[in-house]
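Could you help me review a protein record that somebody else here produced? Here is the record exactly as it was handed to me:
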Amino acid sequence: MIAAFSLETWLLAVLMGFGAALYTSVGHAGASAYLALMALFGLPAQVMRPTALSLNILAGSVAAYRYMRAGLFSGRTLWPLLLGAAPMAFMGGAIQLPGHFYRPLVGIVLLAAAVRLLWPGAFKPWRDATPMPIALGILAGASIGFLSGLTGTGGGIFLSPLLLFMGWSDARTASGIAAAFILVNSIAGLSGNLASVQSLPAELPLFAAFVLIGTFVGTHLGIKRFAADAILKALGVVLIVAGLKMLGLF
C-alpha cells in the first residue's frame, strides 16, 4: 500500500511533518500549514477541511499533553475560551460552503496566518499582564471557534496573538493554552459535520505518520525554548503564496 503512493504524495507528507514540527514548537497544531500545502498540491476543496481538522486533532492531542505536562498551561484562561468556542466550532463545521466561497475564505485565513509569522513584533503586549475577563474570553472564543470550524483550522493563529497582545498570558504559557484550545476546537469542528470524513483521502495515514513525528520534534523544541524565527518567516512566505492561490490571484 505504501509503495502505491506517488512521489508527490510522499513530498506532501514530508512537508506536512515539517510544518507540524514548526507549528507545534509554538503550541499550534499546523492546520494553516496543512491547508496551504494541500492548496499548493492541488487537493480538492472538499478534502482540505476534514483532512486539516483530522491532522489537527492528532497533533493537538500530543501537543496539549506535552505542554500541560511541562507546566505551560492556565486552566483559568482556557475554560472561558472553550465555553464560547466549542459550540460555535461545531456550528461552523456543520456549514458546507461551496468551493467558490470556501477557497477565498481559506485564502484570507492563510494570509492572516502569514502576517502572524512574518511580523511577530506586531503582537507585543499593549499593557501589563492581567487576568482575562471571563465574558470577553467567552466572546473571543466564540468568534474564533466559528471561523475555525468554517475553515478547518484550529484557531491558534488567532488565539495566540490575542493572548499576547491583550497581556492575558506570557508566550510560553500561551503555547499550552493554544494547544488545548486547538484540540477541542478541531474535535468540535469535525464533529459538526461527520459526513465530511467520507472525503478523507486514502493518503491520510501517511500524512498522519509524518505529522506525528513532526509533532514530537516540535513540542520537544518548544518546551526547550527553541526559536526558529527565520524558518517561521519562510513558512509565512509559503502561506502567502498558498493564500494568493486560494484567492485565485495566480
